[in-house]
Write a structure and sequence with these properties.
By secondary structure, the chain is of the alpha/beta class. Helices cover 30% and strands 23% of the residues. The strands form three sheets. Strands 3, 4, 5, 6, 9, 10, 11, 12, 13 and 14 form a ten-stranded mixed beta sheet that branches. Helix 4 links the parallel strand 4 and strand 5 (120-123). The chain starts with a helix and ends with a strand. The relative contact order is 0.18. Residues 1-49 have low confidence and may be disordered.
Length: 313
Amino acid sequence: MKRRTFVRNGMWVSSGLLVPALARAQGAPASPAAARSAPAVRAQTGGAAGVIQVKGTSPYEITRRAVAELGGMNQFVSRGDVVMVKPNIGWNRTTEQAACTHPEVLRAVIELAFAAGAKKVVVMDNTCHKAEDCYQRSGIEAMARRAGAEVRFSDENRLVLHDFKGEFLGKWPVYRDHLEVDKFINVPILKHHGSSGLTIAMKNLFGILGGNRGKLHRDMGENIADLANGFRSHLVVVDAWRVLVRNGPVGGRLSDVEERRTVIASPQIMHADVAAAALFGRDARQVEFLQAAHERGMGEIDIAKIALKSLSA
């Protein structure tokens, strides 16, 4: 049974909330919905997942090359899949200001998903600034539509309760759009963050959440680790073309942006974030959420122990 079919038909609905019966990721899954999360932890602890880092002259081309080096999008997307592509669209900023995912990185991911046989590709985020402004000014809405994706805005009527079964993060409202898909591709931008130190793929998952996300800033590193451990990203593609190195996550000054002209791709979220942290110039052991993820057995924190392949294109 397709996962989205189970979400529509196989859960109990009460008072407008859909309550998934999810087992702990470390234990045996109790349902098809739980089975979606469990493989993420097995991949994270196995250490076999590779990380590809490509530097070049075109954000579009290096994204395609990075995915190709992982074996192609067919490794992650099957014919007939409904695919959620989750960029960072959180802020009313331009591409040059490097607060949101680069539209050309997003275009490459969308096109590759369709080429692999995706039935539908959805692009969506729960923004911090006004959604319409963020989607438009970032260039992401126009690019996603041209590439054939369905662009959605977060709708509070579609919030459901998801149990992350974490040490700090338990049940929390999630936009059901992210649950009613077959595959989830996480496409963050690498940048500085005043509260979490960095924001990459694990922190990008804040965009699937509703509710008062400000409450999660207490014990933020622990909550980010629980979030990423309780919700699977089938593929991570990190945009590090232009990197906001100071005054993140909002930024605004071009003097705070440096060109790194790089994309990092991996099916393993923690290893993608560790590699991105190294590219930023930060030891992952100094990043609270990566240390918390490592303590949960989600992967290696030592970049030297990660199978990282660096290329120029």
